[in-house]
Amino acid sequence: MRAKSVTEQARRAQIVSAAIATIAELDYAETSFKAIAARAGLSSTGLISYHFRNKQELVDVVFADVLERFQSFVNARMGQSSARAELEAFLRANVAFIREHRADMLAFLRIRAHAAVTDGGIADSDHVALAALLRQGQQAGEFRAFDPDVMAVFVLAMRNGVVQRSGALDLDVCEQELVAAVELATGG
């Protein structure tokens, strides 16, 4: 397989961006190559077909693209000096990505059930990492006694609720309340 030229890479990125916007606006079932081509300003759906065999391949690329950018965004904001600060940074980074990339998150949620690729066990790894962080905070005396695995489920459920309802929420208020609720729950 030959390497894609800079022009081909740019066209592919343009199509992915248009697909995200189209899925966010129209939902998965209503999204077609025709609608994506119109949003991208392409003269033909053939330009999409040149880069993606079918809608499934495009959806899989969109899913992986948004997931990778979300993880990179959150990870870049981690590395705080205490478990409490790390937990707060995690929550704020999640909401910040949602705030800055609402269409991406909406498209991600709308295609999640349709993507052939998976999140690579991200939900499980998020849970394991968060439970470990909570244990660390307990050992350091930063958090009260609780079951870290159960608390991780609760924290992630609240975060996921924000993601699912992000279009209907004031995210500044949501961020404040999410951080406060987790702080109260962990004994802050």
UniProtKB/TrEMBL annotation:
Domain (HTH tetR-type): residue spans on this chain: 15-60
Name of one Pfam family that matches: TetR_N
Keywords on record: DNA-binding, Transcription, Transcription regulation
Keyword Transcription regulation: yes
The keyword Transcription belongs to this UniProt entry's keyword annotation: yes
InterPro entries to which the protein is assigned, alphabetical: Homeodomain-like_sf, HTH-type_TetR-like_transc_reg, HTH_TetR, Tet_transcr_reg_TetR-rel_C_sf
Gene3D superfamilies, alphabetized: Tetracycline Repressor, domain 2
Protein's recorded name: TetR/AcrR family transcriptional regulator
Originating species: Lentzea rhizosphaerae
High-level lineage: Bacteria, Bacillati, Actinomycetota, Actinomycetes, Pseudonocardiales
